[in-house]
Amino acid sequence: MPGIHCATPDAAIYAFASCAALIGKTTPAGRYLASDEDVALALLEEAQVAVVHGSAFGLGPYLRIAYALDAPSLLAACAAMARFCRALIRQSSMHLHLT
After folding, report:
1. Complete domains list, the chain, with CATH
2. Where is the Aminotransferase class I/classII large domain (predicted)?
């Protein structure tokens, strides 16, 4: 998805995905994303997807994403995250043209 990049994890129930490309953007709800913690909170509040900010583990700007879920729930969460990311990029592009 745009703005979130993750290497394929070897053998765990979670992955750490970089959200560095989302830092500095503003959500459609008007939240400025200054850190991975802001990204995690915005995902929860605006996309209803729970992740943990990597800074909690000393790994910012990453998100810890658990994937020990049933396939339909995981696919729904990924789709919601992708919509969230596309909205950020679209809004940021529009913002650049207006300033």
Report:
1. 14-98 (3.90.1150.10)
2. 3-79
